[in-house]
């Protein structure tokens, strides 16, 4: 297990025969074709134009794979050795479909070009490490083919996604990101930062005990995070509203709620009450300004309006907590 984790069980590139290198190229083209079809399936409903790009790229990978198989058949026969990129130490990894599912459309396009570029660079590296003339020529041909694929990705993008279509898809991707992550996360951050102010500072000024205040803040933050997370996930499944996965929204809301409360609870780990309270108050204002910035940046709320709403509301809750604690 440890050897596998450290990559010791992988074979070095220099140990491959020419037949094994050809088998590796075949499996690489096959896997990339599957990845492109997976991208197409992920994008088809929301971005049909980009989905067609990946379908065409998968067809191109299939064509090159067949050419490589024909070459192997003519030189080495019917049996293709089982050599895959995860078996080779120097071969670049590929991200599976589920790791790119939440990426913006622009990053998925860039990922496709990066895949072809990294494969081409690998074949160039492989050619520099072998001495057999036939193997070097074969690797050079493969590198050239991958460069052609990279150009193909750009050419297909220009054909299927002209600037107007790309702008529409990028705007839709940004809107989905805001609905799925930013909006619930912002709501959680606001709730965690503002709603925990009163209990934390009330406990602080009522007890004067930093340990007790921290425990109150920790329980309030975690409890609010769990509540907000479940509420966000349960109240809307995202099918009608189009706001995306309820699990992702719930996690974004719950995590940000907890962090919002912990921000001004953690300073009370400092034993000195005065110092801890001063830092906590400073953290509160940083949190409130951060919320105003996010509202302005992603929700397009005028900065002055966002500042007035958040800072004024937070200041009122903070004052209420301090007054109740001193009562």
Folded structure, characterized:
This protein is mainly alpha-helical and 327 residues long. The protein folds into 2 domains: 7-161, Ferritin, CATH 1.20.1260.10; 174-326, no CATH class. The chain has helices spanning 2-5, 18-43, 48-76, 97-100, 105-128, 133-160, 163-195, 197-207, 210-235, 246-263, 273-298, 303-326. Residues 1-7 have low confidence and may be disordered.
Terminal CA distance reads 61 Å
E-strand count: 0
Helix proportion:
over 70%
The major β-sheet equals:
none
Secondary-structure element pattern, one letter each = HHHHHHHHHHHH
CATH superfamily of the largest domain: Ferritin, core subunit, four-helix bundle
What coarse outline follows from CA principal-axis ratios? elongated
**Whole-number mean pLDDT:** 77
Beta-strand percent range: under 5%
Structure annotation, total helices:
12
According to CATH, what is the class of the largest domain? Mainly Alpha
Low-confidence stretches: 1-7
The CATH topology assignment of the largest domain is Ferritin
Summed up, the domain count is 2
CATH architecture of the largest domain: Up-down Bundle
């Amino acid at each position: 297990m440890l050897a596998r984790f450290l990559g010791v069980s992988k074979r070095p590139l220099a140990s491959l025969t020419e037949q094994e290198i050809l088998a590796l190229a075949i499996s690489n083209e096959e896997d990339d074709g599957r990845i492109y079809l997976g991208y197409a399936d992920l994008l088809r409903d929301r971005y049909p134009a980009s989905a067609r790009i990946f379908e065409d790229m998968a067809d191109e990978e299939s064509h090159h794979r067949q050419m490589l198989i024909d070459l192997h058949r003519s030189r080495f026969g019917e049996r293709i050795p089982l050599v895959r990129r995860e078996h080779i130490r120097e071969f670049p990894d590929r991200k599976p479909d589920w790791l790119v599912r939440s990426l913006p459309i622009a990053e998925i396009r860039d990922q496709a070009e990066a895949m072809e570029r990294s494969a081409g660079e690998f074949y160039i590296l492989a050619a520099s490490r072998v001495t057999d003339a036939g193997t070097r020529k074969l690797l050079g041909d493969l590198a050239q083919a991958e460069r052609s694929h990279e150009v193909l990705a750009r050419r297909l993008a220009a054909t299927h996604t002209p600037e107007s279509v790309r702008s529409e898809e990028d705007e839709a991707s940004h809107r989905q990101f805001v609905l799925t992550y930013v909006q619930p996360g912002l709501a959680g951050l606001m709730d965690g930062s503002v709603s925990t102010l009163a209990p934390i500072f009330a406990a602080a000024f009522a007890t004067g005990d930093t340990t007790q205040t921290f425990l109150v803040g920790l329980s309030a933050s975690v409890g609010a995070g769990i509540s907000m997370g479940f509420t966000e996930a349960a109240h809307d499944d995202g099918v009608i509203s189009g706001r995306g996965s309820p699990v992702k929204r719930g996690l974004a809301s719950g995590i940000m709620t907890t962090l919002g409360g912990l921000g001004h609870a953690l300073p009370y780990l400092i034993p000195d009450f005065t110092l801890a309270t001063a830092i906590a108050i400073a953290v509160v204002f940083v949190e409130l300004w951060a919320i105003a910035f996010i509202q302005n940046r992603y929700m397009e709320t005028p900065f002055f309006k966002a500042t007035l709403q958040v800072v004024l509301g937070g200041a009122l809750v903070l004052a209420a907590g301090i007054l109740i604690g001193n009562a």
